[in-house]
Amino acid sequence: MSVEQYPDVVMPECPVERVLEGQKALVTGSASGIGKAVAIAIGKAGADVVVNYRGGADQANEVAAEITKCGSRAYAHQADVSNEDQVKDMFRKMIQEFGTIDILVNNAGLQQDAPFDEMTIDQWNTVINVNLTGQFLCAREAVREFKRRDVVKAVSCSAGKIICMSSVHEIIPWAGHVNYAASKGGVMLMMKSIAQEVAPFRIRVNSIAPGAIRTPINRPAWETREAYDKLMELVPYKRIGEPEDIARAAVWLASDHADYVNGVSLVVDGGMTLYPGFAEGG
Ligand code: BGC
């Protein structure tokens, strides 16, 4: 069997089954990349969506427009997730507009890479503040609203769902990206600790840990044939992930189909965490 190394993958359509009908979702960092695909898929699945972004108002408005075309409500909201006041305002506005929140996708994240001994305190703080503290701030506001509202059986079995966007680098150490790996390792135990604490309130908290996905964050790793072939040495399934691979996982995790799933990291990585270097030898 020949393995296509640089595929033009035709992805199946995102779910059109409206498994999230009547729910209200916030997807942070959803003007582009994984967040954009997740926001659109959640909208197609029937939820109303707040498209959060920090920069790129036009792109965010386009994402909101695409969701609106599918029959759900959507609007774009600018906020820096690492800023407590802006996060509080974003939730206040969402509750005013949509009445409540049922689904938070804690997606906003960034990389600021540097060799360890050249990493500045600004690079360290920016990545920890957005990737980890940002997820804390948004999760805290969501849990407050989930507890206040409680379960509404006609809408969902649970009082609320949080999906944290983590990374295979919550498991795999990553030289040259110490701030990023530390932030994702932090997300993993933050997610599990919140899940343990709020499960009795019928709140589900899980993560998705994507591998290499074709988005702007890692463009140099896939945009040339040479880089792509090198990347594939790390991916046993021999194709890059597409944002829709993550979006489908997010819709399932947010839906009642996953009602008994709590406190787990769902790895979606084409086998990157299978340590392909050990396929021979060891
Ligand atoms: C990073 C990407 C990287 C991937 C696999 C992701 O979390 O943001 O830059 O390609 O992990 O290493």
Task: Give the secondary structure arrangement, pairings included.
Blueprint: E1 24-27, H1 33-44, E2 48-53, H2 57-69, E3 74-78, H3 84-98, E4 103-106, H4 121-149, E5 160-165, H5 178-198, E6 203-210, H6 225-232, H7 243-254, E7 265-268
Parallel strand pairs: 1-2, 1-4, 2-3, 4-5, 5-6, 6-7
Helix pairs in contact: 1-2, 1-7, 3-4, 4-5
The chain binds beta-D-glucopyranose.
Q: Which architecture name does CATH use? A: 3-Layer(aba) Sandwich
- Along the chain, the helix and strand elements come as EHEHEHEHEHEHHE
CATH class (first level) name = Alpha Beta
How much strand content do the residues show? 5-15%
Distinct helical segment count:
7
Integer count of domains: 1
So, the CATH homologous superfamily? NAD(P)-binding Rossmann-like Domain
Shape: globular
Regions with little confidence, pLDDT below 50 for 5+ residues: none
What does it look like?
- The protein is an alpha/beta fold and 282 residues long.
- It has a single domain, classed as NAD(P)-binding Rossmann-like Domain (Rossmann fold, 3-Layer(aba) Sandwich), CATH 3.40.50.720.
- Strands 3-2-1-4-5-6-7 form a 7-stranded parallel beta sheet, sandwiched between helices.
- Strand 5, helix 5 and strand 6 form a beta-alpha-beta unit.
- The longest helix has 29 residues.
- It is globular, with a radius of gyration of 18 Å.
- The chain starts with 23 loop residues before the first strand and ends in a 14-residue tail after the last strand.
- The model has no long low-confidence stretch (mean pLDDT 95).
- Bound molecules: beta-D-glucopyranose.
- The site of beta-D-glucopyranose (BGC) has 9 residues, from loops.
- The site of beta-D-glucopyranose has 9 residues, from loops.
